[in-house]
């Protein structure tokens, strides 16, 4: 047992005085409660024995004092003794009581000490337990947070998981690094971040696959919306001519047309949730890995784009793949446009998307060109053009450049034009082969209306034809309405194909392609075919040539009307002005060739009549000039008129006038050339007057046939110069600078022929020298000199 530490000694004298003060000798009962503190202090000081000895000494001293006092006061002494005895008795009792209390205090103090030691030990244990509990609670919070991170990852709350990991790393684990599990958790946080990164990346990959699956629906909806928009605008443009110059996506269209905003990536039919992408961007930004995500996203999207174009492409009507491809592309780039607009700045660069777009456009052009390389079906080209045009207008509205696709449209148009040209070329060839160069006959009004609905006629001709009876012989052959119908169909199909094309810079090329096609068909197939028929003289007669002339004139009229039609069709598109067809000039030349063929045929027949003519250009002296025209001329004119009213009845009046003029001019010139210049070496004035009588007769008959007198001027003026004795005047006019063919009195006279006639007159009849002959010789020589001088001046 550990010794109790000694307390400082107390003053026994003071304790005794205190005891004395507390003692009440008059009290009937002992005041033990006041003795407790004294006894306790003596016990703690372990001075019980010393106190008792001191008390005994005090008692002896007091006894002596009492004895001393008693000696004087015995009674008081006795009383004091009695009191002292009582005190002593009380003291003894008190002593026993103090001993008992001491024992009780000793026992209580020992128990209290044990309990106190147990309490201290318990307190130390409790403090350790509390520390352990606090540590465990901290560790449990860390472990709970770690488990919560796993739960957040499992619940796809990745950013919250990253925040929790950051809190773990920066706050909670810092004070627990002396624990092994904390070190292990600290080392595992990068791996947990990797799990978050892998999870969001996996979700983004799944989202990319979903986008690929839904892109076609997105593109389909966008293309359908554009088609509806085109239809609405077409209706408005038809109602208001001022709107025809504007195209879809133009500023005017955007203002006038009530544009309905569509969200093609989020609607009733398809919905693309972009949250996986946004979440992935957010997580990668939190991990400071934006560039890695950008690279991965770009590679994935480029791979998807390449996958779209690596599929085979056919334009089979039973399995159309081209529209599906365009739908995929539209959906692809609408998603890209949405990503650019909604993701943080810099994530999806517009330059990267434009580069991808440019690459895909180039490949689309290549695969379309390859797929259509051997295609000869115009319907396929029309369908492809419509799909490409809608595709262009759809993405043009999202500011994607479409120059290459416009070039593809022009290529399709050129190929389509070539196919149309080949197809109509076959139709034209068939029509030209089957033509008989005979007038077309219609049996009833219905057939007539069908013909009139496709043919171009002069104003009023259709009304005259409708007033005629049936069966009706039309002025042109069956070839003409067939070719007119083909030309109208060709033009309609051209402009239907080119309708809505937005590349205005290529309108000139479109017009040139159409012009080239029409010229090629009309020139090579029709006009050249007519010329080949004219060259085959043995296979056609004069009536067929006349029909060819009529057909050629109608084809020339068709060219003129076709130019007007093209101007009318081009005007609504802002491309005013006429489109000049070379075929028009070619048909004019063909018409001249046909007219020349008639003229040649007439000239051959007229030459036969001229072969019957007999003229005596040097009659005997005194013989009067013939007063009546030659009889063969009457037959010739009658034949000529009969031919014009029967075989050539279908010729247009203008052509008839030309044929008449050419025939009369041929007769007039042939009378001079064959009967005057070539028939005889001699001539006299009466003989020439006989020829002049026939010329005057022809002039009268020509006037009846509305032939201009200019056809007779070369012969008539030459004979008049001689008969009227105006050779000197004519020579003087030449000498003054007048030239043949000018605007003067004898301008139609050919000086060379006049010289020849003067030479014949100079010889006279039988070569006899006469005064008249000498005069004519002088006139001839003067004329030759003047002609020589004029020729020198002209040279």
From TrEMBL:
GO process terms (BP): Golgi to plasma membrane transport; intracellular protein transport; vesicle tethering involved in exocytosis
Keywords: Coiled coil, Exocytosis, Transport
Stored InterPro entries: EXOC6/Sec15 (IPR007225), EXOC6/Sec15_C (IPR046361), EXOC6/Sec15_C_dom1 (IPR042045), EXOC6_Sec15_N (IPR048359), EXOC6PINT-1/Sec15/Tip20_C_dom2 (IPR042044)
Ranges for domain Exocyst complex subunit EXOC6/Sec15 C-terminal: 404-760
Domain of life assignment: Eukaryota
GO CC, one annotated term: exocyst
Pfam families, alphabetized: EXOC6_Sec15_N (PF20651), Sec15_C (PF04091)
UniProt keyword annotation of Transport present: yes
Coiled-coil blocks: none
Ranges for domain Exocyst complex component EXOC6/Sec15 N-terminal: 54-222
Family of the protein in this entry: Belongs to the SEC15 family.
PANTHER family per record: EXOCYST COMPLEX COMPONENT 6, SEC15
Role according to the record: Component of the exocyst complex involved in the docking of exocytic vesicles with fusion sites on the plasma membrane.
Name the UniProt record assigns to this protein: Exocyst complex component SEC15
């Amino acid at each position: 047992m550990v010794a109790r530490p000694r307390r400082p000694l107390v003053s026994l004298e003071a304790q005794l005085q205190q005891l004395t003060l507390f003692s009440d000798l008059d009290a009937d009962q002992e005041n033990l409660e006041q003795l407790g503190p004294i006894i306790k202090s003596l016990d703690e000081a372990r001075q019980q024995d010393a106190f008792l000895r001191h008390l005994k000494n005090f008692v002896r001293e007091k006894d002596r004092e009492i004895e001393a006092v008693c000696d004087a006061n015995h009674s008081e002494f006795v009383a004091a003794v009695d009191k002292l005895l009582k005190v002593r008795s009380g003291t003894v009792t008190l002593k026993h009581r103090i001993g008992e209390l001491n024992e009780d205090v000793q026992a209580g103090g020992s128990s209290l000490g044990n309990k106190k030691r147990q309490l201290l030990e318990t307190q130390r244990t409790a403090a350790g337990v509390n520390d352990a509990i606090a540590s465990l609670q901290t560790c449990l919070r860390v472990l709970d947070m770690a488990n919560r991170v796993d739960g957040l990852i499992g619940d796809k709350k990745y950013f919250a998981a990253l925040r929790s990991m950051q809190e773990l790393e920066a706050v909670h684990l810092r004070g627990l690094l002396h624990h092994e599990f904390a070190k292990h958790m600290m080392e595992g946080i990068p791996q947990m971040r990797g799990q978050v990164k892998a999870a969001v990346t996996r979700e983004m990959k799944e989202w990319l696959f979903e986008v690929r699956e839904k892109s076609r629906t997105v593109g389909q909806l966008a293309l359908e919306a554009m088609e509806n928009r085109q239809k609405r605008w077409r209706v408005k443009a038809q109602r208001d001519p001022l709107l025809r110059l504007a195209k879809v996506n133009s500023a005017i269209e955007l203002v006038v047309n009530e544009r309905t905003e569509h969200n093609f990536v989020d609607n009733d039919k398809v919905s693309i949730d972009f949250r996986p992408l946004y979440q992935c961007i957010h997580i990668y930004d939190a991990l400071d890995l934006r560039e890695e995500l950008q690279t991965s996203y770009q590679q994935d999207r480029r791979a998807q784009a390449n996958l779209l174009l690596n599929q085979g492409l056919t334009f089979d009507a039973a399995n159309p793949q081209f529209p599906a491809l365009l739908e995929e592309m539209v959906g692809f780039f609408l998603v890209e446009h949405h990503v650019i607009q909604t993701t943080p700045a810099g994530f999806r660069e517009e330059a990267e998307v434009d580069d991808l777009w440019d690459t895909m456009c180039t490949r689309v052009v290549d695969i379309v060109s390859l797929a259509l390389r051997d295609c000869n079906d115009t319907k396929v080209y029309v369908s492809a053009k419509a799909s490409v045009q809608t595709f262009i207008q759809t993405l043009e509205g999202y500011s994607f450049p479409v120059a290459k696709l416009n070039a593809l449209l022009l290529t399709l148009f050129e190929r389509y034009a070539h196919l149309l040209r080949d197809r109509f070329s076959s139709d034209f060839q068939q029509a030209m082969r089957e033509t008989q160069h005979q007038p077309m006959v219609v049996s009833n009004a219905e057939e007539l209306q069908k013909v009139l609905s496709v043919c171009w006629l002069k104003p009023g001709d259709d009304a005259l034809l409708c007033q005629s009876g049936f069966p009706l012989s039309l002025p042109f052959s069956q070839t003409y309405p067939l070719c007119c119908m083909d030309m109208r169909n060709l033009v309609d199909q051209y402009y239907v194909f080119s309708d809505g094309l937005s590349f205005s810079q290529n309108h000139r090329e479109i017009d040139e392609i159409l012009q080239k096609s029409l010229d090629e068909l009309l020139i090579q197939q029709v006009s050249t075919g007519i010329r080949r028929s004219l060259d085959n003289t043995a296979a056609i007669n004069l009536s067929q040539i006349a029909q060819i002339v009529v057909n050629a004139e109608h084809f020339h009229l068709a060219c003129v009307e076709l130019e007007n039609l093209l101007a009318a069709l081009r005007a609504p598109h802002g491309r005013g002005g006429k489109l000049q067809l070379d075929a028009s000039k070619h048909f004019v030349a063909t018409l001249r060739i046909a007219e020349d063929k008639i003229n040649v045929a007439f000239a051959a027949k007229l030459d036969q009549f001229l072969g019957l003519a007999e003229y005596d250009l040097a009659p005997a002296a005194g013989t009067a000039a013939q007063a009546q025209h030659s009889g063969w001329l009457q037959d010739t004119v009658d034949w000529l008129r009969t031919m014009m009213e029967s075989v050539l009845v279908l010729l247009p009046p203008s052509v008839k006038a030309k044929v008449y003029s050419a025939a009369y001019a041929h007769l007039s010139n042939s009378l001079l050339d064959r009967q005057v210049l070539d028939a005889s070496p001699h001539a006299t004035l009466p003989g020439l007057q006989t020829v002049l009588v026939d010329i005057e007769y022809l002039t009268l008959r020509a006037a009846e046939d509305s032939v201009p007198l200019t056809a007779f001027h070369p012969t008539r003026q030459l004979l008049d110069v001689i008969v009227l004795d105006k050779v000197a005047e004519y020579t003087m006019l030449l000498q003054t600078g007048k030239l043949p063919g000018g605007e003067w009195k004898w301008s139609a006279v050919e000086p060379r022929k006049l010289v020849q006639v003067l030479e014949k007159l100079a010889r006279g009849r039988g070569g006899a020298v006469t005064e008249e002959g000498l005069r004519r010789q002088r006139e001839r020589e003067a004329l030759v000199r003047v002609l020589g001088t004029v020729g020198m001046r002209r040279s």
